[in-house]
């Protein structure tokens, strides 16, 4: 019988704080494609680029890697309900894993700033969804306070069980490349992801699976860029809702990731994000939500400044699937809605519109 990927806990159990006899709540997350992207290598003027396509996780974002570990631990501790603050993807993931665990879920999302795709997932998995009159940072403050004082278990990335699961993405990159890349970039929001990659690569270094750490780069949206501003942003704004976070919870861990790997933080405009969103769709075949294009957009900016010269292996994590927030694909670069043309149900009419000449 063919082997089926068993989810990150079972695949990496000897490298996670789990025993085979522990309750394991999984939807088969992880094992995502690491895709060669020659068009991007050419654009960035580096040797090789691989995209770690995290949109291929069961709920369509990398959050599932940390949700399997967080919800499994919650189950072992007897939790009946989980709570999460979310810009969208954490709520989709928490709701799905809660169903699998037989628990209820509560999600706090910022009013009006969550995409329909993500909201529909939380609704489908019967989460109790509350739209908070505030931003993500307010939602996280509330979720922490509620989990401290009520019988609900917090599954945000401030829960260390989340990072344990998310570090497996670094293991998978090393499994495929047989080494660490020179540089690894990703979008930067609450900073759980960059902290988890740091943890994973560090462990690989200590085990001798890699000889050096990759330089880790976290890229924010300009309107929501506390790491390049040097402190919290009170009113974060960007179309990249997954990284619309002004006061990142994993601030210190992200600073450590940067210092320890000789990495960096960057920020790009919404326009640059949307340009790269389209480039990825049209030139690499990988459809992502706009936030997920931020890592590549940041590297493009660095490459134009000559900062990537001589790099051989570059990995870019694209964090979430394009179907989560498809509206952006249906607008042209001036923001006008794209509608397929209408045509009569006749081959000659279709060929005419396509400018095709009949075979002779
Ligand atoms: C959560 C998320 C991010 C940001 O990751 P952090 O761990 O908060 O830095 C980026 N992109 C997508 C699609 C996400 O869901």
From TrEMBL:
A GO biological process held by the record: L-threonine catabolic process
Leading EC class: lyase
Domain Tryptophan synthase beta chain-like PALP: 25-320
The UniProt record lists the keyword Ubl conjugation: no
Pathway noted in the entry: Amino-acid biosynthesis; L-threonine biosynthesis; L-threonine from L-aspartate: step 5/5
SUPFAM superfamilies (alphabetical): Tryptophan synthase beta subunit-like PLP-dependent enzymes (SSF53686)
Cofactor(s) the record lists: pyridoxal 5'-phosphate
GO molecular function: L-serine ammonia-lyase activity; pyridoxal phosphate binding; threonine deaminase activity; threonine synthase activity
InterPro entries: Ser/Thr_Dehydratase, Ser/Thr_deHydtase_PyrdxlP-BS, Thr_synthase-like, Thr_Synthase_bac/arc, TrpB-like_PALP, TrpB-like_PALP_sf
Keywords: Amino-acid biosynthesis, Lyase, Pyridoxal phosphate, Threonine biosynthesis
UniProt-listed PROSITE patterns: DEHYDRATASE_SER_THR
A Pfam family annotated for this UniProt entry: PALP
Reaction catalyzed: O-phospho-L-homoserine + H2O = L-threonine + phosphate
E.C. number(s) listed in UniProt: 4.2.3.1
Keyword Lyase: yes
NCBIfam families per the UniProt record, alphabetical: thrC
PANTHER family (UniProt xref): L-THREONINE DEHYDRATASE CATABOLIC TDCB, THREONINE DEHYDRATASE, MITOCHONDRIAL-RELATED
Similarity annotation: Belongs to the threonine synthase family.
Protein name as it appears in the record: Threonine synthase
The species this protein was found in: freshwater metagenome
Classification lineage: unclassified sequences, metagenomes, ecological metagenomes
